[in-house]
Amino acid sequence: MTAPNMSKSNNNHCAEVKDDTDYLTSAREVLKAEATALNDMEASLGSAFLRAIDIISKTKGRVIVSGMGKSGHIGHKIAATLASTGTPAFFVHPGEASHGDLGMITTADTVFILSNSGETSELSDLVAFASRFSIPIISVTSVKKSTLGEAANVALVLPNSPEACPMGLAPTTSTTMMLALGDAIAVSLLQRHQFSAADFHTLHPGGNLGKKFLKVADIMHSGDELPLIPPDITMAEALLVMTAKRFGCVGIIDENGFFLGIITDGDLRRHMDPKLLAERAKDVMTKSPTTISPNVLAVEALSIMNTRSITNLFVLDSNIPIGIIHIHDCLRAGIA
């Protein structure tokens, strides 16, 4: 038995699309409707939103996000966004909750439930459980006086905006508002918890996000790899070190290990002379060259090297060289 072809339905509620222009018009109307709803929601934010943020920020356990159907799909994303921005959270399916997964929820948690109507029957066991054990409930619904809205400690009420579907049935505008509201909550909590770029990197070590937050210290060369020489060494000896270390440069340090300058291929060309090899390193070096801190993002190091047309940066800590980074190190790490 084959499934019916719903696209050929004679449902008179759907406007007949005649050509590509009609498709574009329809698409633009959807975006207009959802944009209007988001503007209305932005204007409606107030004390209830602040109470929700306060409850979540004081939660010692986790934020338990739940919802059924399309609201559930949005809930999955909200839980993931919260967790990735420093607010521990996970999604519990309301159907599974009724069959044992209520055991995942503790009295230290906060329950965050999404339901456009506020009357989703599958949520009743979850609401009853949270109420029984005095677990805070934050609801997101379009109907404040619904069962869910009345049961919640804080009800975040969505504006009365029509769905973008021409029949007014498919969750479109409502789920867009839920998703945006979840983002607003996550970012507000991020700021309240003073969640830093370093914290973000800790939770996003993989993929492109992880690469963006690599620090110079993560990819620099250190120890015996460093091409370092004293200031009174001859250029003949300096060239041997430069060749052996293969960075195309050497750093000059004093007897206390403090950084004095650098000699690069460019410096050699500028001082090209029959007597060059007999000169002292301190007389050829470039004083006060561009350097970098180990805690700077590697992407910033790459930007500096590109901007200044250089290929190396010595990494200094309290003016003592602890590493060197080459532009190829950034490229090998996938930073571009």
What would you note in describing this structure?
By secondary structure, the protein is of the alpha/beta class. The chain folds into 2 domains: 21-195, 3-Layer(aba) Sandwich (Rossmann fold); 216-332, CBS-domain, CATH 3.10.580. The protein is 43% helix and 15% strand. The protein contains 15 helices and 12 strands. The protein has helices at residues 20-44, 47-57, 70-84, 94-97, 124-132, 147-151, 173-192, 197-203, 207-212, 216-219, 235-245, 265-270, 281-284, 298-308, 327-332; strands spanning 63-67, 89-91, 110-114, 137-141, 154-157, 228-229, 249-253, 259-264, 286-287, 291-292, 312-317, 320-326. The strands form 3 sheets. A 5-stranded parallel β-sheet has the order 2-1-3-4-5, sandwiched between helices. Helix 2 (47-57) packs across helix 7 and helix 3 packs parallel to helix 7. It is elongated and about 90 Å long.
